[in-house]
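Anyone up for a design puzzle?
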């Protein structure tokens, strides 16, 4: 009698092997920037929503970041030092890598001094925000995956998906378990292999449709090649990321603004940005990508910085249309 056929399955752990929490003394470093530095402004692009499992901004001015470095998971704590510099402490296998990259993370490789405002609004915002510098993490995948999750959905949907997937399949961050982090604590995002093993129903539970999940899966299969983009010039880095079907100019720019500190990586294809730039620079809230790029031509080489300053100006057109309605992939 023939045996019953049992389909082959791949077991997926609910969580990667945890990095042990430790009270051991962290590695430390103090770094003094050459000019004004606003930690909140510099680090804010890394935050994916108010409950981001990889990032915390505390009321006392301390910032915590958990990430996966080439040397392994690491946790970084940053705060202002008494002498005007930045005090950093790091835990985990990636601690030294994080401290070595601290100046780049905080904009040491940025060149705000070459920026020349061409509009009064931009000039006034630059004067009021002297501590703005463009960060550079040197890590592509940690920005690429959440950027893919943000494609064509509301920010609330994307933040929820990132939060659920990282908490379920990531690892507790190395270092102290601080009550200020909340019930779930800090987490390091999954490695490439773990992302690739997440079953379809878990993507569905997180509200991620098959198009976005398939794009993430294609990217993590060539994660090493994607990470190489962190050391490339902007045109080559944009081209490298867009070799992956499902990654277009919007996703590539959003990633490289963070991983490479790309001052000219202007975000095209955004639902709101063209109207914001058009309203600020030309009084046209109905501007599209083409008009936005034309208005930003005087800032060639620094177009991302120009849009950051426009967004920080607060000169945003009042909303006329209803907010985008969150999707329900259970109905698809």
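Challenge accepted. My sequence:
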């Amino acid at each position: 009698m023939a045996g019953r056929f049992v389909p082959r399955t791949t077991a997926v752990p609910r969580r990667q092997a945890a990095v042990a929490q430790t009270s051991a003394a962290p590695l430390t470093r103090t770094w003094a920037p050459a000019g004004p530095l606003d930690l909140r402004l510099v680090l804010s692009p890394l935050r994916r929503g108010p409950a981001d499992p990889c990032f915390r901004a505390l009321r006392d001015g301390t910032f915590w970041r958990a990430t996966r470095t080439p040397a392994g998971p690491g946790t970084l704590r940053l705060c202002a030092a008494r002498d005007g510099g930045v005090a950093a402490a790091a835990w985990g296998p990636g601690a030294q890598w994080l401290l070595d990259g601290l100046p780049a993370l905080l904009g040491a490789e940025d060149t705000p001094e070459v920026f020349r405002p061409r509009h009064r609004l931009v000039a006034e915002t630059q004067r009021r925000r002297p501590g703005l510098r463009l960060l550079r993490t040197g890590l592509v995948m940690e920005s690429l995956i959440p950027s893919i999750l943000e494609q064509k959905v509301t920010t609330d949907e994307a933040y929820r998906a990132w939060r659920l997937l990282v908490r379920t399949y990531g690892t507790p961050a190395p270092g102290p378990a601080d009550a200020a982090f909340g019930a779930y604590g800090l987490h390091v995002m999954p490695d490439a292999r773990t992302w690739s093993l997440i079953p379809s129903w878990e993507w569905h539970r997180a509200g991620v449709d098959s198009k976005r999940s398939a794009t993430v899966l294609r990217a993590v299969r060539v994660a090493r090649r994607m990470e190489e983009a962190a050391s490339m010039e902007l045109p080559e880095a944009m081209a490298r990321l867009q070799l992956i079907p499902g990654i277009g100019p919007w996703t590539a720019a959003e990633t490289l603004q963070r991983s490479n500190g790309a001052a000219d990586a202007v975000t095209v294809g955004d639902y709101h940005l063209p109207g914001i730039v058009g309203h600020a620079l030309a009084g046209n809230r109905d501007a599209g990508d083409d008009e936005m790029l034309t208005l930003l031509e005087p800032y060639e080489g620094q177009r991302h910085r120009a849009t950051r300053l426009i967004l920080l100006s607060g000169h945003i057109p009042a909303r006329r249309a209803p907010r985008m309605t969150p999707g329900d992939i259970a109905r698809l």
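A detail worth pointing out: Strands lie at 27-31, 55-57, 63-69, 72-80, 86-91, 171-172, 187-188.
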